[in-house]
Design brief:
Number of helices: 10
Low-confidence stretches: 1-17
Number of strands: 11
Mean pLDDT: 91
Largest sheet: 6 strands, mixed
Structural class: alpha/beta
Order of helices and strands: HHEEHEHEHHEHEHEHHEEEE
Number of domains: 1
Distance between the termini: 58 Å
Helix content: 25-40%
């Protein structure tokens, strides 16, 4: 290789390199702390001007060595999808607690109101987009069942987890208009899918298999699946839910659905809104090893073309959607995520600050 191609190759590879965690906890935004001049009153409308600190204007953070982050690496057998180690819950991070039971029940009631058609006002964000009445109500009913069932299982002897949910995001294409899953809804019987039908679902097979593996390994007690009918008529969240339940063995009453997300940054936002709704603070998000994994990394070339998750979120909504960082070992496709940007501070302060939450239904 001559000198210039070598330089170009090194420059391009650098675009995919994540910043290594610093040896010591950071005391600024990259360490989960709000800068002194952060204006929380204007952040959710125009986050870019809420602080003069450039580190406050991106999701990138280093939770690796900060106990308050509830960060932990999930270990995989190298070159395989098999989980071989799961982080244990540290003091202050264990989920669920007795208080979480009441939050889950309160959120289940909110979903039940949507399912009955009498919600009025704001609804859970993942149900606020333009949906058919049937899809909105079936999703709300399924999410309510999951939260009530999980709440009923919580007692003093229940397992405690570091992560509250394991989640994955859908990928749509026009071939899915021919899927046998078009009419499937959460709670319906499983549909038999032959090899040709599974091929139409593309990388969703991998994503659903991995989130099911995370649930079975005990990474988190709940599963979230996110994705709307973006590139066709198939609701991606329903497809992922079917695969996780019918192929992956996840119980139907441990899955939460977001049928509204239309892009990865909306997947993040809506998953975060679900978590905020029932009091969860951390999720383990898992994808495949292809472009979405690169897209979700801390620093990738998408930033240079104006297409990063942060840039899209700021353009579309005016605010950031939390913090995330790779949290898998053995593969590069698992991520710690919190919808709270300044996660290292007390929950009574900016540690509870987020711009995601309920919203009015889009007419």
């Amino acid at each position: 290789m001559t000198r210039w191609p070598r330089v170009l190759a090194l420059a391009l590879s650098a675009c995919y390199m994540r910043d290594p965690a610093p040896r010591y906890p950071q005391l600024g935004p990259s360490g989960g702390y709000a800068p002194a001049d952060f204006d929380s009153g204007s952040a959710c409308a125009d986050w870019q001007w809420a602080s003069s600190d450039p580190e406050a204007n991106k999701h990138a953070s280093f939770p690796d060595n900060v106990p308050f982050s509830c960060f932990g690496e999930v270990g995989y057998e190298p070159g395989r999808e098999t989980i071989v180690s799961v982080p244990s819950a540290r003091a202050g991070c264990a989920y669920p607690t007795a208080a979480d039971k009441q939050r889950l029940l309160a959120r289940a009631f909110a979903y039940e109101r949507v399912a009955s058609g009498s919600s009025g006002g704001a609804v859970p964000l993942e149900l606020a987009c333009r949906l058919s009445k049937e899809v909105r109500q079936r999703t709300a009913a399924a999410n309510a069942r999951t939260l009530r069932s999980f709440a009923a299982s919580i007692d003093d002897s229940s397992p405690r987890y570091l992560y509250a949910v394991s989640g994955t995001f859908g990928y749509g294409n026009s071939e899915q208009n021919e899927s046998r899953l078009l009419g499937w809804r959460p709670g319906d019987p499983c549909v038999d899918l032959d090899e040709g039908q599974r091929a139409k679902l593309s990388v969703n097979n991998i994503r659903a298999r991995r989130v099911a593996e995370a649930w079975k390994a005990g990474v988190a007690p709940l599963v979230t699946v996110s994705g709307g009918a973006v590139h066709g008529r198939l609701v991606e969240a329903f497809m992922l839910g079917h695969l996780a339940v019918c192929d992956g063995g996840v119980p139907a009453d441990r899955v939460l659905y977001d049928p509204c997300a239309d892009h990865t940054h909306t997947n993040f936002r809506n998953t975060g809104a679900m978590m905020v709704g029932f009091g969860a603070r951390t999720a383990y998000l898992i994808t495949d090893d292809f472009i979405q994994s690169d897209y979700m990394q801390d620093f990738v070339w998408f930033e240079s073309i104006g297409g990063s998750i942060d840039q899209r979120a700021l353009r579309d909504w005016g605010h950031l959607i939390g913090s995330w960082r790779q949290a898998s070992r053995g593969i590069d496709a698992g991520f710690w995520y919190t919808p709270y940007r300044f996660w290292a501070e007390p929950a009574s302060g900016l540690g509870s600050f987020t711009c995601v939450g309920d919203a009015p239904i889009d007419p």
